[in-house]
C-alpha cells in the first residue's frame, strides 16, 4: 500500500518563506543541500538494533566534513566484561536540526539513514 500526503501552504521562518519540496533519505554518501533550499533533519535510523560491547556505540552525523555525535547506545544487561546495548535507546541531540544551502551531510558511525525534509526558499 502506497501512502501519499501533501503539505498545503507555506512556512515562514525568520523572514523566509519556505515551501515543501521533497523528503530525502541520506546514507553514508555525502549529499549537498542544493541552492535555494534548506534541509530540516528530522531523525535517524541506527545501523543495528543491538550491539555487544563494553562501551556504548556512538552515532555520528557528518556535517560539512566534521563528525558530530547525535546519540549513543545505552547498556541493557551487563555481565562480566561484556554488555548488551540497544542502539536506539539514547539520542542526545534535539531534532529537528536545520542546514542551509551549500551544507553537506552524510551518515557517520552507527547511522544507517538520516530522514530529511527539503524546503524551497521563496524570495
What does this structure look like?
Strands 3-10-6-7-8-5 form a 6-stranded antiparallel sheet, with no helix packed on it. A hairpin with a 2-residue loop joins strand 7 (66-79) and strand 8. The protein is 0% helix and 63% strand. It contains no helices and 11 strands. It has a single domain (12-122), classed as Jelly Rolls. The model is unreliable at 1-9 (pLDDT under 50). The protein is elongated. It has strands at 11-13, 16-26, 31-32, 37-46, 51-53, 58-63, 66-79, 82-91, 97-99, 104-107, 111-122. It is mainly β and 123 residues long.
Question: Topology, please?
Answer:
Layout: E1 11-13, E2 16-26, E3 31-32, E4 37-46, E5 51-53, E6 58-63, E7 66-79, E8 82-91, E9 97-99, E10 104-107, E11 111-122
Antiparallel strand pairs: 1-2, 2-11, 3-10, 4-9, 4-11, 5-8, 6-7, 6-10, 7-8
Amino acid at each position: 500500500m502506497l501512502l501519499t500526503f501533501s503539505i498545503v501552504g507555506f512556512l515562514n521562518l525568520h523572514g523566509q518563506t519556505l515551501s515543501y519540496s521533497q523528503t530525502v533519505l541520506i546514507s553514508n554518501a555525502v549529499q549537498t543541500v542544493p541552492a535555494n533550499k534548506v534541509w530540516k533533519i528530522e531523525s535517524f535510523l541506527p545501523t543495528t538494533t543491538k550491539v555487544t560491547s563494553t562501551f556504548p556505540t556512538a552515532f555520528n552525523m557528518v556535517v560539512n566534513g566534521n563528525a558530530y555525535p547525535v546519540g549513543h547506545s545505552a547498556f541493557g544487561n551487563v555481565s562480566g566484561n561484556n554488555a548488551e546495548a540497544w542502539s536506539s535507546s539514547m539520542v542526545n541531540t534535539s531534532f529537528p536540526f536545520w542546514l542551509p544551502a551549500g551544507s553537506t551531510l552524510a551518515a557517520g558511525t552507527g547511522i544507517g539513514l538520516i530522514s530529511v525534509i527539503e524546503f524551497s526558499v521563496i524570495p
